[in-house]
């Protein structure tokens, strides 16, 4: 979803590089770390809304995967659990 000026309105998710790639059957662990910091909160025209705005977000997403050898309609059956942990500071 874009803002109309070629800029995304939301940060990237936990996966963006090779998100559709399925590893071979097995059990996997994956860990994502994200850090976001901003000192501006703008309106739709780019004007600063809150002069002293600050936000800092640290996220960790822990993922567990089980890829089975079972094929369904040409795809591989897999189960995945993601556990997010966030630390958010807003001023």
User: Counting H and I runs of at least 4 residues, what is the number of helices?
Assistant: 0
Q: Determine the fraction of residues in helical runs and give it as a percent range.
A: under 10%
Order of adjacent strands in the largest pleated sheet: 1-2-3
Order of helices and strands: EEE
Number of strands: 3
End-to-end distance, in Å?
A: 27 Å
Low-confidence parts lasting 5 or more residues at pLDDT below 50? Answer: none
The coarse silhouette is: elongated
Domains, number? 1
Task: Name the features.
91 residues, mainly beta, 3-stranded antiparallel sheet
Structural notes for this entry:
The structure is a single chain. This protein is mostly beta strands. The chain is built from no helices and three strands. The protein has strands at residues 26-38, 55-72, 75-90. It has a three-stranded antiparallel beta sheet, with no helix packed on it. A hairpin with a 2-residue loop joins strand 2 and strand 3 (75-90). The protein is elongated, with a radius of gyration of 18 Å. The protein starts with 25 loop residues before the first strand and ends with a strand.
């Amino acid at each position: 979803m874009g803002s109309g000026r070629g800029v995304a309105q939301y940060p990237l998710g936990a996966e963006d590089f090779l998100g559709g790639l399925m590893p071979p059957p097995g059990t996997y662990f994956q860990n994502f770390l994200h850090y976001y910091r901003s000192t501006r909160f703008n309106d739709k025209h780019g004007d600063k809304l809150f002069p002293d705005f600050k936000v800092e977000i640290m996220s960790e997403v822990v993922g567990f995967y089980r890829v089975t050898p079972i094929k369904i309609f040409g795809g591989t059956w897999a189960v995945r659990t993601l556990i997010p942990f966030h630390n958010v500071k807003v001023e």
